[in-house]
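Re-running Tetraspanin to confirm reproducibility after the cluster update. Everything else is unchanged from the original entry.
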Amino acid sequence: MGGAIGFIKCLMFFFNFLIFLGGLCLLGTGAWITANPDGFKYLVSSHPLIYTGATIILVVGLILFLVGFLGCWGAISESKCLIMTCFFVISIPHLFPDLFRLSPWRVILSQIKTENFLTELKSKYKGENSKDVFSKTWDTIMIAFSCCGVTGPDDFMNVTALRKLPPSKRVPLTCCKRSDTGKILNKKECLLGNPNFRNDQGCYRVLVGHFMKYIHIIGICTLSVLLVEFFAMGFAICLYWKF
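Result of re-run:
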């Protein structure tokens, strides 16, 4: 019997340690996003979508970190109080799934609208030569994903900082198609609006498409977390009745 209890203790420690590590990773990621010294924190604070996502990552990471720590400590110290506390905390998301599964994502999804991104682009984009974080981030996204604006190049016609420029120069060069080495294929034709040398697809659709490609990975990670939590709950109950 003693060997069986010791084995259950090891398993409970192992699964709670996985939860602990997952929480630590999320906590570190959230902290890095909100406190990055390169200026990313200013983009986070100015954009409600990124700020909400970073906050959720921090909160979830902190909860998982504490739950994993309590579970590991409870298994080592053989404390019924800690084990039962760990069990109840882990079981809360399963008792109220709608609260934890839908509410945070409703907040985020309510902000994932083209109108919100268009408003941000119109008021904050300063051009491809600007040094502010918002403009550089948009330029990086447009080059990396071969897209232009939120819905297309016409979005830059209404950008406040570019209104003094002639229409042919309002679309930034970061919308131009590039070679594998990163060089613009044809600057002149790009500025003339030739679709063979300019990316006419908006970044919103491109980014959503990339997200949908990898959504199955999110599902696998979610199922893995649920499986680990169920094992941790089961071993917590076993240890509670054995101690």
